[in-house]
Each structure stands twice: as structure tokens, then as C-alpha cells.
Amino acid sequence: MNIIVCIKQVPASSKAEVDPATGVLKRIGIDSKMNPYDLYALETALRLKELEGGSVCVISMGPPQAEKVIREAYAMGADSGVLLSDRRFGGADVLATSYTLAQGIRKAGNFDLILCGKQTTDGDTAQVGPEISEWLKIPSVSNVRRIIRVEENGIIVEMDMPNDVEIVKVKFPCLLTLEKDIYQPRLPSYVRKMQTKNVPVSVLSLDDMEDRDESHYGLNGSPTQVQRIFPPEHDVQQELWKDSGPALAARLRDKLKALKFI
Prior knowledge:
27% of the residues lie in helices and 23% in strands.
């Protein structure tokens, strides 16, 4: 089974800076980490590989520093990695992002299964995975919380729906987006990190894609534009009160009324 896992490098802190000109997050030169939801997708891929054989390829879109999360995936057990990195990809909304990833997946080679985390912590749209499947014209299943069984021509999964749980079989090739806690992600192995330090990462630009039309990528290919984005405010004011229970209750009531919470 050949599995592709979509991973993303996201800010490691909520104190992210915003480009005032484009309204998008600044990703170069900031502390970053692998999107937590993608760790569940990667762990699922590695367990399927252990059971069924095959290979795991990770693919990411981002600046050159995003190679770090691909190296982390290598240390966890991934076999190969592809980084889609080009300034012309920058500022993409979910549509342009999914299109770019779909183009990169086509270049990555044949696959049976694509796995994605449920969403990213910097966007929270949960749209990129299903949109990739639309571009690739393959079936997809979202909100997968359990892999029940892998069969010769498909996979049976359990979906966590708002009001019930559904069990479906989807034929290969297909795409799944995974809920958190489907498995406990393993830690990167230092031994494997050293073993894979010379394993190359394929870096692809717009010039490597089948479709080289710049109007389909980045800001040019994004039908939605961010009007305003700003980092959250941090209120670090604290008060420490010491008194009897009734007195503290009355004081708390007065404080909440002053703040117009009650």
C-alpha cells in the first residue's frame, strides 16, 4: 500500500505576526512545529504500513524551513518526502492550497491512500483535505475516528458524525481526514533521525508542476481574500484575594457586575 500523508508546518506559538500588506501569517523565521492533527494522520499511515506493507510519503507546502517537519516525519518512520516551495505559492487560500497539493501529489507518483489531519491549528477550515480529493477526482471520507479493516480494493472506516457514528467502505484510491486520538502518535526516533539525515527531500516549485499557470496558485489563484487578521490579545492582569467565603463571594459578584458579565 502506497500512502501519502499531507503535513503542514504551523506557528508554535499564538504570538504570530501578520503581514500588513497581504493579511497573511508571516511563516519565515518564526518558531514552528508540525500541525498536531497531522501527527495523527502520520501515525495512522505508519501503522497501516506495518500491517499491510508498502511505503509512506509525506508532502508539505511552505517556505524552505518547512523541510524541518518532513525531517521530523522521517524520524517517525516516513520513507520519502516532498516539499512544495515557491514564493508564487504564498498567500494561498484553501482552494489554491488544495490545488497546489493535488498537483504535487500527482508529481509524487502512484498512491492508494491519502491521509490528512482533520484541520490545521492556524487555519481551522477543515476544507483542504476534501478539496484535494475533488481535484484528484477520488472519493473521500472525513471525520474518521477508527480504521476497521483494509481490504484488497478498499478500506472500511468509522466516521464520527454530529448525531451518530457511521461505518463506510471506500474504494482505493481515496482520501481520509482523521480525527485526533485515532492513535497516539509515536515520538521521533533519534536513531532513525541519524539514519535518515541524508535521505533527500524532493523540493518542487511551480515550474515542476503539470499546470504552470500562475493564476491558479497563491494569491492569484485564491478567490477568497482575508480582509482583516490579527493576533489574539493577551490579558495578563491578575488579582489575588484573601478573605472569608461569603466576603469573597460578594466581592466576586461585585467584580462581575462591574465588568458587565452579570
